[in-house]
Specification:
By secondary structure, this protein is of the alpha+beta class. The chain has helices at about 25-35, 40-50, 75-85, 90-100, 105-115, 125-140, 145-155, 175-180, 185-195, 200-210, 220-235, 310-325, 325-345, 345-360, 380-385, 425-440, 460-470; strands at about 240-245, 250-255, 270, 280-285, 290, 300, 370-375, 395-400, 405-410, 445-450. It comes from Blastococcus saxobsidens (strain DD2). This is AbiJ-NTD3 domain-containing protein.
Length: about 475
């Protein structure tokens, strides 16, 4: 729970440390902390604050009277800072170093690979990569802007000068020589030489997106021809290319799982205390929706959510602007509103909501968990439409994560499997399972929790175990 959530009435104990420590995360965090050794003593305090590290001062704790006090060396200060990191926070520390943007290319790539390894990213096999290279070769040259091509390679792959050459000081010169000056590499050879045939799945996808970008191919028809050439291969691999925006007037293309929604969310209706909001289509051609009811009925987040997902900071900043109130007041107001909505629904939903924010405190970015989100809205009454008119109209919780991931969390109460009288109902259960299928086919990830898992003595462990695997840290 962030420090701003004061007075929310939630437990503030940190979740228990995992029993198995990821050695890669630990070793990389140690290396990153040690890399601060080049700073002056006076600069370590500032660096520690920006990275969330508890770096002790140069003067150690007071000693008994009469004993000499030896100032700590920089290495001793950094060693103590590392020892103070909880094993569950190693990856968060690595992420903060990455966000600072001061790492070498090689170290940056190692941190990225560690963090991306936790993502549920579809595998891209060597065969798929070779088939993609063949499809690109068949469509003609894969680049038209030399600087753009080199920049994409340098952004994603760490190259070293060949051992047999003493003349090439720039490790990327072979790429320039064989792809630009004297283009005699096939795309498969190009992929092999830069490491794209066996690099991480997420890195390869980003590299491929770079080749499709306007910086490498500043010609939209050419961009679309390349997309058309490789789309069938990606489809067979369970992936697809979506057009996700523009940069400098050229379309951006993103590779996502085949079930992912093709565009960012444009409007989120959430925190509804079960009252149906009144909506009106303002412009049919633009699919523009106007919310007629006030904030007491539903909140309408109307800022398009981009590739990086939706964070709590995004939502509270939006609320501050909407209400024209200071940021600190906005944090308190919004938190209380969301917590109250969850409490009105069920103790289990309130427990999941509170346990998540308590678990996630200290993580950056802190992705927003929005309660009671409207998914379907039908202006026709239930009597006219039938008893299934409003099935799955709201999600208990929604998270929008990087890469256009939409995650729905559902807390199962009796209404998901029984009648109001408490009798088990196969029909009601079938409606629940059908709704899950519809959501998944529409590109949502759906996860269900039982009320039993979210009792007071179980909620913290349930939430920690789930979000460790879902985010870790996205």
């Amino acid at each position: 729970m962030p420090d701003s959530f004061v007075g929310a009435g939630l437990a503030t104990e940190m979740p228990a440390e995992p029993t198995a420590v990821d050695s890669k995360a630990r070793d990389l965090a140690r290396e990153l902390v040690s890399s601060l050794h080049g700073l002056r003593h006076v600069d370590l305090d500032t660096a520690g604050a920006s990275l969330g590290l508890d770096i002790p001062g140069q003067q150690p704790d007071p000693s008994p009277v009469g004993e000499d006090v030896t100032p700590l060396s920089k290495q001793q200060r950094l060693d103590r800072a590392f020892d103070a990191i909880s094993p569950s926070d190693y990856e968060a520390v690595c992420a903060r170093f990455l966000q600072q943007g001061n790492l070498s290319i090689e170290l940056r790539n190692r941190v990225e690979d560690l963090l991306w390894s936790r993502e549920n990213w579809p595998p891209i096999t060597a065969r798929v990569r070779r088939e993609l290279a063949e499809a690109l070769d068949a469509s003609g040259a894969i680049w038209s802007e030399a600087d753009g091509l080199l920049n994409v390679v340098k952004r994603h792959w760490v190259l070293h000068p060949p051992a047999w050459s003493f003349d090439w000081k720039d490790p990327y010169e072979p790429v320039a020589r064989h792809m630009i000056w004297n283009p005699d590499w096939t795309t498969i050879e190009f992929f092999k030489e830069v490491g794209a045939l066996d690099g991480g799945d997420r890195r390869f996808a980003l590299f491929l997106e770079g080749l499709l970008s306007g910086s490498v191919n500043p010609n939209e028809p050419r961009q679309r021809a390349l997309v058309a050439a490789i789309s069938p291969v990606l489809t067979r691999a369970g992936l697809k290319i979506v057009e996700s925006g523009t940069t400098d007037g050229y379309p951006d293309f993103t590779i996502v799982g085949a079930g992912t929604r093709p565009r960012p969310a444009q409007l989120i209706l959430f925190a509804s205390p079960h009252a149906k909001p009144a909506l009106r289509i303002r412009d049919v051609l633009d699919q523009s929706i106007e919310v007629l009811t006030g904030d007491d009925t539903v909140l309408a987040y109307d800022v398009p959510v981009g590739e990086r997902g939706l964070t709590w900071r995004d939502v509270e900043s939006w609320w501050s602007r909407r209400r024209d109130i200071p940021a600190a007041q906005a944090k308190r107001e919004l938190w209380q509103r969301l917590a109250n909505v969850c409490a009105d629904v069920s103790p289990a939903q309130r427990a999941l909501f509170g346990a998540y924010y308590d678990y996630a405190k200290g993580h950056d970015p802190l992705f927003a968990l929005l309660p009671e989100v409207w998914l379907h809205w039908d202006p026709v009454s239930r009597a006219q439409r039938g008893e299934d008119a409003y099935l799955n109209q709201r999600m208990d919780f929604l998270m929008l994560l990087p890469g256009l991931r939409r995650v729905a969390l559902e807390v199962d109460g009796q209404q998901h499997y029984a009648t109001s009288a408490g009798e088990p109902s196969p029909r009601i259960y079938s409606v629940t399972t059908r709704g899950d299928r519809d959501l998944r086919l529409s590109g949502y990830e759906v996860y269900r929790f039982s009320g039993y898992e979210l009792t007071e003595d179980r909620a913290s462990d349930t939430v920690r175990e789930f979000f460790d695997r879902l985010l870790h840290w996205a």
